[in-house]
Specification:
Helix content is 54%, strand content 10%. By secondary structure, the chain is mainly alpha-helical. Strand 1 and strand 2 form a beta hairpin.
């Protein structure tokens, strides 16, 4: 790794500081601050895959020293997640992954795609797109449930966001419970458990 200097940090910020996601991050004299960072690894060439897509990994920033973190960012080896995406990852790591590992993986890939293409999204649309992955999957897996359930959820999501809460965990939890109440999933009367709340609130 190269020697990290304040000049190198300043030069990188001058070149990239106005672009997403760096314009969403707070900075100090020591560099950018983030809770999560996106790392990429090559796909497994021992596995037959048509698209040969790389694998994306969301890693907590506290796993690295400050110097290593800044060097990964400046060299392009890692992309920092802005706060709105970090809020999602905090929940998905502690709760969402246990609910569905596929949902977690799709969430990381979706956010990686937005980061790599420098595509900003407001909180409402970001949360909607990620929760929709799971809701659509739950609806599509049950042939007895009409598509109207999905559109009912869309209406409810925007109502909840506009009038009740902007919290990702609360919105995701309400969404999954609504779909289950329509007869999808293991329980039609599931309520918010204290275990679920404590898992996320302790983060």
């Amino acid at each position: 790794m190269f020697g990290l200097t304040s000049e190198a940090l300043a030069a990188f910020d001058d070149a990239n500081g106005t672009e997403y996601p760096f314009n969403e991050l707070s900075t100090t004299r020591r560099g950018y601050r983030c809770r999560w960072i996106l790392l990429t690894s090559p796909c497994d060439h021992n596995v037959l895959r048509i698209d040969r897509m790389p694998r994306f990994h969301a890693i907590p920033s506290h796993c690295f020293s400050d110097k290593v973190l800044q060097e990964m960012i400046i060299t392009g080896k890692g992309i920092p997640f802005p706060d709105e995406m970090s809020n999602v990852l905090d929940v998905m790591e502690r709760w969402g992954r246990d609910k569905c590992s596929r949902w977690y993986d799709c969430t990381v890939r979706y956010m990686a795609w937005r980061l790599k293409n420098k595509m900003w999204s407001d909180r409402k649309c970001l949360y909607f797109s990620i929760i929709k992955i799971k809701v659509k999957d739950m609806v599509d897996r049950n042939d007895n449930i009409p598509d109207v359930v999905f559109y009912q959820w869309v209406y409810l999501y925007y109502h909840w966001f506009l009038y009740d809460t902007h919290d990702y965990f609360e919105l995701a939890l309400r969404s999954l419970h609504f779909v289950r109440s329509m007869g999808i999933g293991p329980s039609t009367t599931q309520t918010v458990s204290s275990a679920e709340v404590s898992v996320v609130s302790s983060s």
